[in-house]
Amino acid sequence: MIEWTLLGVAWLVTAIAAQAQQWPLQGTTLFENVRVFDGTGSPVSEPTNVLVRDGVIAKISADPIPVDRSATTTIIAGDGRTLMPGLIDAHWHTMLIRTTPLQALNSGVGYLNLLAAEEARSTLMRGFTTVRDMGGPSFDLKRGIDEGLVWGPRIYPSGAMISVTSGHGDFRSPTELPRPLGTAQSRIEQIGGAMIADSPDEVRLRAREQLMQGASQIKLTAGGGVSSPFSPLDVSTFTEPEMRAAVEAADNWGTYVATHAYTPAAIQRAINAGVKVIEHGHLMDEATAQMMADKGIWLSAQPFMPDTGGGARQLGASEQAKKAQVAAGTSNVYRLAKKYNVKTAFGTDILFSKEDAEKQGSRLVDLLKWYTPTEILRMATHDNGELLELTGLRNPYPGKLGVVQEGAIADLLLVEGDPTKSLELVTDPSTNFKVIMKDGKIYKNALEWR
Q1: Each residue of 411-436: pLDDT tens digit?
Q2: 310: exposed, middle or buried (Cβ count in 10 Å: 0-12, 13-18, 19+)
């Protein structure tokens, strides 16, 4: 009897291990009886069936979809739940979530990648199947995720953000000045977090280096920032010729430049240089919003609030004051974006806080002050997907993202309830996201299988 019991335990352990090795589950998947939010803002559908095959959405039909019900086919009974696109965060820092500023500057890239890999798995389990990384050495982690070594969202990497001396991204202390001309690099440059460039030629060089490593877009810092201690918010940093050098380098590679900028002067200078996306923009004015709308410039904004951002506790008093100034402009930036119909993306820009990252979905709920749930979900799916298409031939994941449409990449969430009516559902992904799929692979299925 004991021998049979031991055999039974051994069989169970083996079976569990075998099942664990199957994740993410691959093959054909049929979602039956789901109500589809397709990402475009259209109303949630009547009961529908959705077939996923070879990583894409193969068929959507109100009628039953016949499939080969073999071991390689997963049938998911939706029972009226909502099927929607995976969420996209358009301003994420993959390598800078679970570290402090001091750790980031004093740790090896290997350790930072281990921290980031843990966070990447959590990000995917929050339903964010794609992130646009806006500064940091994320190339190796992206490769590991793409090769299936670790779980995480698909990453659109910028590589090191490019800054000027004393600009946002220059984290040297005054004791490290003057900087010797030539090849000397600061620690933040050595780990690939930021690059300092002070002429068009230097900017061109640093942009080309990021493209060589696999950047899907280039990130410049056109004005002062919150987290950097020596860049007041009101300053404009790069000159127009310097920014134009990066724009030309990116354009030669078929992609684009995005710039960190808050003030009208910094934003307008960047647009005049050919930049296609403005990150933040919280201190913009009416004329700047009109300019962005007229020229079709994207605004990648974040709902910074005075009472959010535990990572800000890592910052000093002057940085805290800058954070308060930016948060005070949040209502204004969304008001202007709506008034002038500026193309707007959703991102979070979370830094240095695992606690904040766990509330990533809550940042969507913060937008209810200005948008409807349907408008918000469209922004975080369809609209962000359109933004990613600006990468052109440098798109690391060719295909349609952010929508539930035939032929689109199968990044999907099955939600318990209707988030277009109760957006708060996205704040509790462990309970409400019953199925998480990326690239047609199931990473989570909390429903009964058949």
Answers
A1: 999 999 999 999 999 999 999 999 99
A2: middle
Query: Which fold would CATH assign to domain 87-370?
Result: TIM Barrel (3.20.20)
Contact 376, 367 (CB under 8 A): yes
Fold of 25-86+402-445: Urease, subunit C; domain 1 (2.30.40)
Q: Do domains 25-86+402-445 and 87-370 have the same CATH topology?
A: no
pLDDT by residue (tens digit) across 44-80? 999 999 999 999 999 999 999 999 877 789 999 999 9
Q: Residues with Cβ < 8 Å from 441, sequence gap 6 or more?
A: 24, 25, 26, 55
Cis amide bond preceding 47, omega within 30: no
pLDDT above 90 (res 359) = yes
- What's the rounded Cα separation, in Å, for the pair 52 and 78? 14
Q: Please give the Cα distance from 94 to 97 (Å, whole number).
A: 7
The domain ranges of the chain are 25-86+402-445, 87-370
181-197 pLDDT, tens digit each: 766 788 889 889 999 99
Q: Can you tell me whether residue 105 is helix, strand or coil? A: helix
